[in-house]
Structure formats: C-alpha cells, structure tokens
Design goal:
By secondary structure, this protein is of the alpha/beta class. The protein is built from five helices and eight strands; from the N terminus they run αβββββαβααββα. Helix content is 34%, strand content 21%.
Length: 208
C-alpha cells in the first residue's frame, strides 16, 4: 500500500479508536435513583471536567494516550455515588451542611500502553518529568507514585465537605494486565477502584 493510500486508512483507525475512548461506559454498580439527603450537594465543577475528551492525538504531546472520563461514561454518576455514600455512612454528621464539589476529574492514563510495549522506556523522570510539569499535564500523572508511567486511573479531588476541604489525587495502578486500550477489563477495574477510593477519601474527611 502506498503512503497515499495508507493515510485514509490511518485516519479511519484513529477515528475509531478515539470514538471508543469517549463512548466507553464504565458500569461501577447499579444506577442510583436520586433521593433526599440531610445535606446540600453543590456542583461547582467547570464544564470541561464533565466532558469526555481525548486529550491529544499528537504522540509528542504529554497528553497523548490520556483520556478524560465524562459524566456520561460512569454508571452510576460519580456525584450520585458520592452523595449516596455520604448519606449512608456519615449523613447524620452532615445534617444541614453543604458538600461543594469544585473538582472530581478523572483521567485514564494509557500512555505507555498506547505507545507500545516494545521494550521502550516510558518513565516520567528527568527531562520528561520537567516537560510534563511545564506543559500542565501533571494532573494526569503520578510523577512520584508511578515513575514507570504504568497504565493508571488518576482522580483529582477538590471537595468541601461539612466545612472541611479535601484536595487530593487518587492514583489507581492495579490491576495491571495486557489491556492496550480503554475498554479492556483491567482498565475498567482500575476506573471502578479509583472512583471508590476517591469517594472514600471524602467520606473519611466528613467522618472526622
């Protein structure tokens, strides 16, 4: 196949792959019917956080191989799951108070898997680390906790719960396997564990 003929096929492949990344739905549990709570949950996230996005298609960009999970990609909705956990576990302590969600942003970092496994070094040390910070990609990496840049799900939290502030980053590395894209079983399990861990960090803060 000539280069001229190869390009259209390459564009088709990229379109299919990126479409899968933003349309994949992660079922974390049963969908939740909204119910009355003892507290007021206020969603102050910006609209960008709520939308699924392929962060970059350029292999030289530090956002390459990283996908933001949109609200429509999680069942149940992340805020519905958080609200239910808070009500069930610490509802009495939050009676009459506010839970303000400034950030609950989830990145699926599949960079090393998407770039290939041919023995390449995809670590985030040295100059690579500096470039990630300089280009504002740090939210999707665990520079200290995951220096080898294994596939990971990263949750960035900024939540005010009952007057307490939770600013944290959840890094979910396990389980690891042979998944090479976002719709595999290992990636799906990482998403579930990451969201559960993020919710529990807010619950723990509220309980103190």
């Amino acid at each position: 196949m000539t280069n001229g003929n190869r390009l259209p096929w390459l564009l088709v492949c990229i379109t299919l792959l990126t479409g899968c990344a933003t349309s994949k739905v992660y079922v974390l549990g049963e969908d939740l019917v909204p119910r009355k709570t003892n507290f007021e949950l206020i969603d102050k996230r910006d609209e960008i956080q709520k939308k699924a996005e392929i962060m970059s298609l350029s292999i030289t960009n530090c956002w390459y191989g990283i996908y933001r999970l949109g609200d429509e990609q999680l069942v149940p909705d992340r805020l519905a799951a958080l609200s239910r956990a808070l009500e069930d576990l610490v509802g009495s302590k939050l009676s009459g108070k506010q839970v303000i969600i400034n950030r609950f942003e989830i990145f699926n970092n599949m960079q090393s898997a998407v770039r290939g496994t041919g023995g390449g070094d995809y670590s985030v040390e040295g100059l690579v680390r500096s470039a990630i910070i300089a280009n504002g990609c740090e939210a999707a990496f665990a520079l200290d906790g995951n220096p080898a840049n294994l596939p990971a799900v990263i949750v960035n939290l900024d939540v005010e719960v009952g007057g307490k502030t939770v600013k944290d980053k959840v890094v979910q590395l396990e389980p690891q396997g042979q998944d090479t894209f976002v719709n595999g079983p290992f990636a799906t399990e990482r998403v579930k564990r990451a969201v559960d861990a993020a919710i529990m960090r807010v619950v723990e803060a509220a309980s103190r």
